[in-house]
């Protein structure tokens, strides 16, 4: 029996998202989510996508990532697709921070694990969870290849003038302080898919990708190569996000420390968890914010306006970085679903060649589509991301050795 299946794991600080795919036709066999790991109210939602299988939910305390993965494996085993299945070729892990060293998907061995561990100080929220996911999967089936696919990999092409912060070089270098960028798997996938939507090869087009999920980032991709991105040393820089501030004057931190007496950890939590849309209006779900705006809620309106203003500034900046732009692509939860965000972001940018057709923008769908009027200088597109498929492809291409990752 040939092993053609890949399990993709995206381990977050308190959740694990997973998908099992068959790489002969990229089909999904199962998908699921473990939420609130470590809290009393954990939940596993498992959806088999073959045969008659219906969605199954488990409500039980899941104390840590090892327990989460064991629960996932047992659900998969119930459907005859456990981690010991001879049809499973590998597990592909989303690893958020790969530093400068990991520019490609990598089969995990002890030195690779040690390097991911070494990067914990620059990705304290993400890398520990990713490591636990890998170690647990390894322990469950030591013969199964584990592949790490890094969020930072696509951004390792940033030119030095984009990656450098303008601070003392010796200090920066000794502590690895530079801009790394994240969500790279999504930026890579969406920029390629956008080229295809335009009927072009990736190396023929310049694309601005706006990945607007809970975390949000923008990137400028020239001929398939990433030349600028909005996240930095950590996923805190850049756009306004669900709970993260994005760009602020770094002096805000000194001020809060000196004047408000807040500790570094308190400020870290403030900027990562109590800022962004949540900080501005108490909600981080764009659907809820739109609903509140319809009812005349001023705080929700301001949150929306701050969010869109930041986005517009980045679009303008990236037009300047690229010189010539063929397309702006909206993706992830907000980018794919919020017509008001897309309309407000492109609004008033006719001078840059950008426009959104209200009727096209209102159409909902799963397929990549153009929302700019025919004949626009710059195409504006909605291009659903698929990080799991991209991770599965890269993983399979590495273990099957057939170079089919593009
Ligand atoms: N129909 C919708 N309209 C507007 N926003 C939506 C809609 N569906 C999802 N979202 C937004 O997408 C966000 C989640 O995006 P997603 O890409 O799934 O995030 P992540 O993968 O970072 O958890 C939600 O917080 C919500 O704001
Ligand atoms: C890197 C990052 O911000 O990831 P997420 O959007 O999954 O939080
Ligand atoms: Mg996402």
Task: Summarize the entry for a quick read.
With 406 residues, the protein is α/β, with parallel strands linked by helices.
Order of helices and strands: EEEEEHEEHHEHHHEEEHHHHHEHHHEEH
Question: How far is the N terminus from the C terminus?
Answer: 26 Å
Task: Tell me the name of the CATH homologous superfamily of the largest domain.
Answer: ATPase, nucleotide binding domain
Report mean pLDDT, rounded to a whole number.
94
What is the CATH C-level name of the largest domain?
Alpha Beta
Q: Find the structural class using helix and strand composition.
A: alpha/beta
Classify the helix fraction into a percent range: 25-40%
| CATH architecture descriptor name of the largest domain | 2-Layer Sandwich
Order of strands across the main sheet: 5-4-3-2-1-6-8-7
Strand content: 15-25%
Which fold does the CATH topology of the largest domain refer to? Nucleotidyltransferase, domain 5
The gyration radius over C-alpha positions equals 21 Å
Total number of strands: 14
Uncertain segments are none
- The number of domains: 2
The largest sheet is: 8 strands, mixed
The small-molecule ligands in this entry are: adenosine-5'-diphosphate, acetylphosphate, magnesium ion
């Amino acid at each position: 029996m040939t092993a053609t299946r890949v399990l993709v794991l995206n381990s977050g600080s308190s959740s694990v998202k997973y998908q099992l795919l068959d790489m002969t036709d990229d089909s999904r066999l199962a998908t699921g989510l473990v939420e609130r790991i470590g809290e009393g109210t954990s939940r596993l939602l498992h959806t088999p996508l073959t045969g008659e299988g219906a969605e199954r939910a488990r409500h039980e305390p899941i104390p840590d990532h090892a327990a989460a993965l064991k629960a996932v494996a047992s659900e998969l085993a119930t459907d005859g697709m456990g981690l010991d299945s001879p049809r499973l070729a590998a597990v592909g892990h989303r690893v958020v921070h790969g530093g400068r060293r990991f520019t490609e998907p990598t089969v995990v061995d002890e030195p690779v694990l040690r390097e991911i561990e070494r990067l914990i100080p620059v990705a304290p929220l993400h890398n520990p969870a990713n490591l636990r996911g890998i170690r647990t999967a390894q322990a469950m089936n030591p013969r199964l290849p584990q592949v790490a696919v890094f969020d930072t990999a696509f951004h390792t092409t940033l030119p030095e003038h984009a990656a450098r912060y303008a601070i003392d070089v010796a200090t920066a270098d000794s502590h690895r302080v530079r801009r790394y960028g994240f969500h790279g798997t999504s930026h890579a996938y969406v920029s390629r898919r956008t080229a295809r939507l335009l009927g072009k090869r990736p190396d023929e087009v310049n694309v601005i990708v706006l990945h607007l999920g809970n975390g949000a980032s923008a990137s400028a991709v020239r001929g398939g190569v990433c030349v600028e991105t909005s996240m930095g040393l950590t996923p805190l820089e850049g756009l306004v996000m669900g709970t993260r501030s994005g760009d602020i004057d770094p002096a805000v931190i000194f001020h809060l420390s000196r004047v408000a007496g807040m500790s570094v950890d308190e400020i870290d939590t403030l900027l990562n968890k109590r800022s962004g849309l949540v900080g501005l209006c108490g909600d981080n779900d764009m659907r809820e914010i739109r609903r509140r705006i319809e009812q005349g809620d001023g705080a929700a309106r301001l949150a929306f306006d701050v969010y869109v203003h930041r986005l517009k500034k980045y679009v303008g900046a990236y037009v300047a970085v690229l010189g010539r732009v063929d397309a702006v692509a909206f993706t992830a939860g907000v980018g794919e679903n919020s017509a008001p965000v897309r309309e407000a972001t492109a609004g008033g940018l006719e001078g840059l060649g950008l426009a959104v057709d209200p009727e096209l923008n209102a159409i909902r769908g799963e397929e990549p589509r153009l929302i700019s009027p025919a004949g626009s200088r710059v195409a504006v597109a909605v291009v659903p991301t698929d990080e799991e498929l991209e991770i599965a492809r890269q993983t399979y291409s590495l273990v099957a050795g057939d170079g089919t990752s593009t």
